[in-house]
């Protein structure tokens, strides 16, 4: 199979423009990816409103984001691989319809139990955002693949970071249920974009679903580069989980004494780092992924050592957020370039394995970052994150410089 698919398609706009107008086509995929993954996070800023309405305890309300994230991880493992055996355009359209229904169900929840069930479905189907990465990799040429993946990854991280700010604003202004209705409308907008622009690409594999899922372990064992990429990205993602899950606590403590609303605004600063990701994609295309991975790890280390060493201020915190998010993005684009270049007929599965590792790392980072904050305050939090960056950098030197990626 060639790297640039030349299939007969019903709606060929993106297929025709990925090579000739990569930026425009890539940003369109990035928009869809960001709007897809954002649904996993819209509700988080409004959880206090949900708690008040349903009279739930903090422990009970905590199950909503937890099970949403578990649903997202399960979607990466169980639904994302379907992109290798089903036409990706049709798969995305079906998931978009079901996701919109799940969001409406969440908005109409009569009680916490119903909301939890709907949130699991939202997380499961929120994996739709990751479906656009293999599409970009498949449509782009070898010379442009890193740049194309960088564009889509920019949309993914921007969706994660900006969704909290939008979710908090809408929940505060119109209520948490309104945000779910708005999200459903945005998903239908994504469906229309996909319907009009994404080519109806044929499946790249004809495996049965059971064999498809079983092959995940085979690929994990076969490709050493995939394992190293997943471990390294999990370590870097742990810094995301640690920082963003404790940011409200950092801002509430001395010397800031600020409310939780300011934490959402920091998502805008963090998203600024994501917009440089396409540049790292070009670096991958020209020099391979390892230089960008090591640069990204170094940026994470410098950012957190700087936060620990410099006097605490909103400016240093904002700059640190931009720099470390930039580093995580640089490495993620590079790791996705590695994963998507291993075996063209298994891109959805390989990307799913990589991102499952990242999700595990983010969840572990949230837990360990909270513990580091509890025992060591901000210096403990920044120290943990810097050490995670050092470990990720060390893993990057285990990659073989040759083209042999197998174990």
TrEMBL record:
Q: Which CDD domains match?
A: MFS_NepI_like
This protein's species is: Bordetella ansorpii
Q: Where is the Major facilitator superfamily (MFS) profile domain?
A: 22-403
Which InterPro entries is this protein grouped with?
MFS, MFS_dom, MFS_trans_sf
The residues that cross the membrane are 21-42, 62-80, 92-108, 178-198, 228-252, 258-280, 292-309, 315-333, 353-374, 380-398
- From which lineage does this chain's organism come? Bacteria, Pseudomonadati, Pseudomonadota, Betaproteobacteria, Burkholderiales
Q: Name one GO molecular function term.
A: transmembrane transporter activity
Q: What is this protein called?
A: Transmembrane transport protein
Alphabetically sorted, this entry's keywords are: Membrane, Transmembrane, Transmembrane helix
């Amino acid at each position: 199979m060639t790297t640039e698919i030349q299939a007969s398609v019903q709606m060929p706009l993106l297929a025709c423009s990925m090579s000739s107008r990569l930026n425009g086509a890539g940003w369109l995929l990035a928009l869809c990816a960001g709007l897809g993954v954002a649904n996993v996070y819209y509700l988080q800023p409004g959880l206090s409103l949900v708690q008040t309405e349903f009279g739930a305890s903090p422990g009970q309300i905590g199950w909503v984001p937890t099970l949403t994230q578990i649903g997202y991880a399960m979607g990466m493992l169980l639904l994302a691989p379907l992109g290798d055996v089903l036409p990706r355009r049709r798969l995305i359209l079906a998931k978009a319809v079901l996701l919109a229904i799940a969001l409406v169900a969440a908005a109409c929840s009569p009680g916490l139990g119903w909301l939890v069930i709907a949130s699991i479905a939202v997380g499961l189907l929120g994996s739709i955002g990751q479906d656009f990465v293999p599409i970009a990799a498949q449509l782009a040429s070898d010379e442009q693949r890193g740049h194309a993946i960088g564009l889509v990854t920019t949309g993914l991280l921007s969706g994660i970071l900006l969704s909290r700010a939008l979710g908090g604003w809408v929940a505060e202004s119109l209520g948490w249920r309104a945000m779910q209705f708005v999200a459903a409308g945005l998903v239908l907008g994504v469906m229309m974009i996909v319907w009009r622009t994404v080519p109806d690409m044929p499946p790249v594999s004809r495996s049965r679903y059971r064999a498809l899922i079983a092959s995940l372990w085979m690929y994990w064992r076969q490709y050493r580069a995939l394992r190293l990429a997943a471990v390294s990205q999990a370590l870097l993602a742990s810094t995301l989980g640690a920082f963003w899950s404790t940011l409200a606590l950092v801002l509430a403590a001395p010397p800031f004494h600020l409310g939780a609303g300011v934490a959402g605004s920091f998502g805008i600063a963090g998203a600024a780092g994501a917009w440089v990701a396409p540049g790292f994609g070009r670096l991958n295309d020209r020099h391979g992924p390892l230089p960008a991975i090591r640069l990204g790890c170094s940026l994470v280390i410098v950012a957190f050592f700087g936060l620990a060493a410099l006097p605490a201020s909103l400016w240093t915190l904002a700059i640190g957020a931009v720099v470390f998010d930039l580093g995580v993005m640089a490495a993620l684009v590079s790791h996705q370039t590695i994963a998507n270049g291993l075996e063209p007929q298994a891109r959805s599965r390989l990307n799913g394995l990589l991102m499952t590792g990242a999700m595990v790392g983010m969840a572990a980072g949230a837990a360990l970052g909270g513990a580091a904050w509890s025992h060591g305050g901000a210096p403990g939090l920044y120290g943990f994150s810097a050490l995670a960056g050092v470990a990720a950098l060390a893993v990057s030197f285990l990659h073989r410089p040759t083209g042999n990626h197998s174990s």
